[in-house]
Amino acid sequence: MVPSYQNLSTIIPVDLPLSIDTVFHPVHDNSTDFVKCIPLQENRYMVVAGDVSGHSPESIQVAARFHNLIEKIQEEGISPLAVCKSFNEYLATQWNNNHEGDLSASITSLAASFITFDLASNSIQLLSSGFPSPTLHTSHMAPMVNLGNASMPMGWFDPFEPYAHSTTFPAEGILYLWSNGLISHARKMDIHPLSLAILLLQTKDESDTPFLKEQPDDILLIKISWPKLDMKVSTLPLFEANYAGNTKDDIDMFQATWRKSIQAILPSLHKEKLNKILLCTREAILNALSHGCSLQNYLFSSMQMCISADMNSIFVRIQDEGTGFDPDSPSLQLARGLEDHVPLGLIIIKSLASWVEFSNNGSCLLLSFHLDKI
């Protein structure tokens, strides 16, 4: 009898100091995506997410076996690294070899992410094996952090080393984790995965998800936020990207994705207000690529958009790798009547945004747009 894996798809204890929201949209009866939270000793909690390749009955067997193995993390104190190496060896040297004649089974692999929250030492430890990188967001004024890196799933090669990373546990934050199915559908919609994540968390009812029509794969989304209580992180991440200095000619393509990502969350936003946000962001990116990055392919400009929890403000943060400039220099002071010497982009930005601030010697630009006022 093939074990049913639907009951294992989301296993979250209710008495956690972390707030964990999950969204699960399978398109296959034999879905193998899952998430499980494991309370450890001394104020430590581990979230494990996984995705087995394929949707055959054999894939369900692999998922159930892995689920049983991760139970030993809590029961026997086995480390996530030992779990990964043990299961990788099983897939690479036993399972795939034993199913060599079956193409669907011979390429079976498992992508997984282990995230440990240590409340005592204020740290987050990640161990990833082929699972998409988690995104950590703390504030619209701070850069988003992608915690992961490229790594192989279990089952490809033996031996292998999963990717490990640790970072400080901020006082307040949100961590997003999703399966490849969410990335694939966001790409199909031409929006950022963060935008799709917000949309999914807003509309958990199946009847309200026409945007998921013809989704190519199962979607698993996990949002972990803290502190728990009724306190909410004031902003939600909407978009983030890094643009090379020599991509100035692709600005129209970038802008089209920004537009769709915002419209997915705010479909009723007035066109004029949307265009103001897009125009300011466009001019700021062009300035960063042209002046901060000097149009060089080895210099990058990062851009991130956030939206307030009440959906009434959008914040844009742009930072380049250049040397910066003095935003208070005479040639950039509108108040001194030297408009002829001020770059047109800065005039547009200052006239349309609700709030503008420079930091990091002028290499970082913060913009805010209050949607009821612009």
Structure, explained:
The chain is of the alpha+beta class. The chain contains eight helices and 16 strands. The strands form three sheets. The protein has a six-stranded mixed beta sheet with strand order 1-3-4-5-6-9, with helices on one face. The chain has a five-stranded antiparallel beta sheet with strand order 2-11-10-7-8. A five-stranded antiparallel beta sheet has the order 12-13-14-16-15. The protein starts with 9 loop residues before the first strand and ends with a strand. The N terminus is likely disordered. The protein has two domains: 228 residues, 4-Layer Sandwich (Phosphatase 2c, domain 1), CATH 3.60.40; 135 residues, Histidine kinase-like ATPase, C-terminal domain (Heat Shock Protein 90, 2-Layer Sandwich), CATH 3.30.565.
Give me the secondary-structure topology.
Elements: E1 10-11, E2 19-25, E3 34-39, E4 44-52, H1 57-76, H2 80-98, H3 103-106, E5 110-118, E6 123-129, E7 135-137, E8 145-146, E9 163-168, E10 173-178, H4 180-189, H5 193-202, E11 219-226, E12 235-244, H6 251-265, H7 271-292, E13 300-308, E14 313-320, H8 344-352, E15 355-359, E16 364-370
Parallel strand pairs: 1-3
Antiparallel strand pairs: 2-11, 3-4, 4-5, 5-6, 6-9, 7-8, 7-10, 10-11, 12-13, 13-14, 14-16, 15-16
